[in-house]
Design a protein that fits this description.
The chain is mainly beta. Helices cover 8% and strands 43% of the residues. It is built from 4 helices and 49 strands. It is globular, with a radius of gyration of 26 Å.
C-alpha cells in the first residue's frame, strides 16, 4: 500500500496525483494497521525483524517528504504548476556496510533521477547496490564484487563501473545479467548520449564505443597551456566538449576542452572532480564545498565567476567529490565529516592506532619516514597547490613552494629529498636538501609524468616510473646527467617500485596477469620474475632490515595490509598473512600511501575515520536545480 502511495504521490500528471494531504494521511493510517506483503531481498538485517516493519517507517519518512512537496505546489487558475520547493531526505546503507573512500565517486544517479547505484563495503567485500527511489530496500547487483566509480548509461538501463584490481571497465544491466568487460587499462569514465564512453588513463583522455573496442586517444596533456594532466572527464551535451580535472590527486583545477578546435578554457585553478548540471552550470569541489559556474556551451565560455552553492560535501583525500546530480535536478551527496582530510597516525602490527599529531587533518599524500626514523616527508594538497613538507619534532616545515611538487622520497642517508614536479615547463624529477638550504636541482626531464620511486643504496641510481601510455620502470644515473636505462619496458603497466634494504631486490606492481599483482626481480638484473601477491595486490613496501624477508602490500579485498614472508636463496614465498584491516586508512592509487618505521613494529598511515567514528549517510535533495538557478542565475 505504501509503495502504491509513493507512486501516486510522484506521478507527473497533476490529474492522476493525490489532491490532498488528508487522503495521504488516510492511506498511511491504513498501511500501519495491516502487514505489508513484501519479499525479502537479502540485505541488511532481515533476520532480526520482519521486512515490512523495517520498511514502513522508512517509507513513511519518504512519503512525508513527498507530501511536503505536494503541499508546496501551487496551481494557478490557468492550470500552470508552480515549481516545487526543495525537499531533503537520507538513505541508510545496508547494515554493516560503509561508503568506502578512494579516488572516485562512490555512487551514480540515473538520468531520470529515479535510481541510485552506490558502492557499499562490508567486512569482506565491496559491491554495487541498486536503490530505486520508489522502493524501500537496496538490492545488491550481481557480478559487481570489487566494483568502484559507477556511472549510468544515458537510458538508465545499464551501469558501468571500474574493476580496479584488473584495471578494467565493465558494464552490467540493471535488469539482471552478467557483466562484461569494455576495455583493459581503463577504470572509470562517463557515458555520453552518442553511445561513447570517455575515460582518463595516465593523464590523457580516451574514448571507446559503449559495446567495447580498442580505445581512441582524444586529448593529451599540454603543460604549456597549464594542463599537465587530464582526469575525471565529463562529456558536455552535444558531445563536442569535455569537462575535466586538471592534474590528478592534486586539486589542480577544472578545464573544458573543445573537441572541435582543441581550445581549452580553465574554469578554476583550484578544485576537483567536475560535474555538469542541465541548468547550464559546471559544478566542482573546492575544500568540502560545492561550487557552481555558469557555462555557455553554445559560445564556449564562462559567463560568471564561481559561487559556493553547498557546504559540507564529502571530498576524498585525492579530490573525489561524493556528489552527483541528475538531469531533472535531483542532487545526491555524502556529507562531510567534521574534520576533512586524513590524519597521520602510527599503527602497530596489532592494528592499534596512535596519532602522530594532535587531531591535525590535512590532504596528505605519500608520507615517507626518514632513514633515521626521526622525520617524515609528505605531500600536502592545499587550495589547488601541491607542496612538499617536512615534519620533525611535532612541527611542519615547508620544503617546496612552487605548488606543483609531489611524490617525495628520501635519499638513503636522509640528507635530501627527490620529488616530481612540472615547474620546469615539462615533467621533471627534482632534488633538494632536506634542510632547505640548497637550491632545487633538476635530475631528469620527460615528456610524460615521472615519479621517483627509490634510490639505490649508493645514491646515484634512481629508479623512477614514467607514465607513458603503458607506465614503465627506468633507472637513471644522476652522475651522468640523468641518463636512463629501462628496467622494465613492456606492453603492460609496471609501477609502484620499491627496493629492498640490501639493494638486491626490486618489488613492483604489474598487470601482466590481467589484474594488478606484486612482483619481485633481482636488482639491477637480469633475473627471473617472482609473483608475490595472490588475488590482487598493490603498494608494496619492504620490511626495514637488510635480510629482505618481509614484503608488505595492500590487497584489493576491501583493504587489508598483508605481509609475505620470503626466502631469497633460492627465492620463494614461504607464507602470507594479514597484518591488520586497512580500510580505515587511505589507500589512493599508485605507489604506497604508507611507510614502515625503521624499528619494524609500526606503520605510518593516513587515518580516514571521523574522530567521532560516525559514518555518513547518503543525502538526497529533490528539485535542487531550482535552488541552483536561484543562487547562480545564468545569462539568457
Amino acid at each position: 500500500r505504501i509503495k502504491d502511495l509513493l507512486r501516486r504521490c510522484l506521478t507527473k500528471d497533476v490529474h492522476d496525483r493525490l489532491d490532498g494531504i488528508a487522503n495521504v494521511r488516510i492511506e498511511i493510517r491504513l498501511a500501519l494497521t495491516e502487514p505489508a506483503t513484501l519479499t525479502p531481498v537479502g540485505v541488511g538485517s532481515a533476520a532480526q525483524s520482519p521486512l515490512w516493519r523495517r520498511a514502513i517507517p522508512w517509507s513513511i519518512a519518504v512519503v512525508a517528504v513527498i507530501v511536503a512537496g505536494i503541499a508546496g505546489w501551487r496551481v494557478t487558475r490557468s492550470g500552470a504548476v508552480m515549481p516545487v520547493q526543495m525537499q531533503r531526505f537520507s538513505i541508510d546503507l545496508p547494515e554493516g556496510t560503509i561508503l568506502p573512500t578512494g579516488v572516485g565517486t562512490d555512487f551514480a544517479i540515473s538520468p531520470d533521477g529515479q535510481s541510485l547505484v552506490y558502492v557499499a563495503a562490508g567486512p569482506s567485500e565491496k559491491r554495487l547496490y541498486l536503490q530505486r527511489l520508489d522502493e524501500f530496500e537496496a538490492t545488491p547487483i550481481p557480478g559487481t564484487e570489487g566494483a568502484e566509480m559507477p556511472f549510468f548509461s544515458p537510458d538508465g538501463q545499464w551501469v558501468a563501473f571500474g574493476d580496479k584490481g584488473r584495471s578494467q571497465l565493465k558494464r552490467v544491466p540493471l535488469s539482471g545479467g552478467e557483466s562484461f568487460t569494455l576495455c583493459n587499462q581503463c577504470e572509470a569514465g562517463f557515458w555520453g548520449d552518442d553511445g561513447s564512453i570517455v575515460f582518463d588513463w595516465d593523464g590523457s583522455l580516451w574514448r571507446i564505443p559503449e559495446v567495447g573496442s580498442s580505445p581512441e586517444l582524444i586529448a593529451e596533456p599540454n603543460p604549456d597551456r597549464g594542463v599537465p594532466r587530464m582526469s575525471r572527464p565529463v562529456l558536455l551535451p552535444g558531445g563536442q566538449a569535455v569537462l575535466f580535472e586538471i592534474g590528478f590527486l592534486q586539486f589542480g583545477g577544472v578545464g573544458v576542452l573543445s573537441l572541435e578546435n582543441d581550445e581549452v578554457i580553465v574554469v578554476s585553478t583550484d578544485g576537483s572532480d567536475p560535474l555538469y548540471s542541465s541548468t547550464g552550470h559546471i559544478l566542482f569541489a573546492r575544500g568540502n564545498t560545492l561550487f557552481a559556474v555558469p557555462f555557455d556551451i553554445k559560445n564556449f565560455k564562462v559567463t560568471e565567476p564561481a559561487v559556493p552553492v553547498l557546504q559540507g560535501v564529502r571530498v576524498e583525500n585525492g579530490g573525489a567529490l561524493q556528489a552527483k546530480v541528475s538531469r531533472d535536478g535531483l542532487l545526491v551527496y555524502a556529507p562531510a565529516s567534521a574534520a576533512m582530510g586524513t590524519q597521520l597516525v602510527w599503527v602497530d602490527r596489532d592494528g592499534n592506532v596512535e596519532s602522530v599529531l594532535d587531531e591535525q587533518r590535512q590532504l596528505f599524500y605519500a608520507p615517507r619516514i626518514s632513514p633515521d626514523g626521526k622525520k617524515v616527508v609528505v605531500q600536502i594538497n592545499d587550495g589547488g597547490d601541491s607542496n612538499i613538507w617536512i615534519h620533525e619534532s611535532g612541527t611542519f616545515r615547508l620544503l617546496t613552494t612552487d605548488g606543483v611538487s609531489a611524490n617525495p622520497i628520501w635519499t638513503p642517508d636522509g640528507s635530501g629529498v627527490a620529488f616530481s614536479s612540472s615547474s620546469a615547463g615539462s615533467f621533471a624529477i627534482q632534488w633538494t636538501t632536506a634542510d632547505g638550504t640548497s637550491e632545487v636541482k633538476t635530475l631528469l626531464l620527460s615528456e610524460y609524468p615521472v615519479l621517483p620511486a627509490v634510490w639505490s643504496p649508493e645514491s646515484y641510481q634512481l629508479v623512477f616510473q614514467e607514465d607513458s601510455p603503458n607506465p614503465n620502470l627506468f633507472v637513471a644515473d644522476v652522475r651522468d646527467g640523468g641518463s636512463r636505462t629501462a628496467f622494465l619496458e613492456t606492453d603492460f603497466s609496471e609501477h609502484s617500485a620499491t627496493l629492498s634494504h640490501s639493494g638486491k631486490w626490486l618489488a613492483y606492481v604489474s598487470n601482466r596477469s590481467g589484474s594488478d599483482e606484486v612482483y619481485v626481480r633481482s636488482f639491477p638484473g637480469p633475473g627471473a620474475e617472482h609473483v608475490i601477491s595472490r588475488g590482487g595486490g598493490m603498494q608494496p613496501v619492504w620490511g626495514p632490515d637488510d635480510t629482505d624477508t618481509e614484503l608488505f602490500y595492500r590487497g584489493y579485498d576491501v583493504g587489508f595490509l598483508r605481509v609475505a614472508s620470503l626466502q631469497t636463496e633460492p627465492f620463494q614465498v614461504l607464507s602470507w598473512k594479514v597484518v591488520f584491516p586497512a580500510r580505515d586508512f587511505w589507500g589512493g592509487v599508485g605507489h604506497a600511501q604508507y611507510d614502515i618505521h625503521p624499528d619494524g613494529q609500526r606503520f605510518l598511515m593516513m587515518n580516514m575515520q571521523d574522530p567521532d567514528g560516525i559514518r555518513p549517510k547518503i543525502h538526497v535533495i529533490l528539485n535542487w536545480s531550482e535552488e541552483l538557478k536561484r543562487q547562480v542565475p545564468t545569462k539568457k
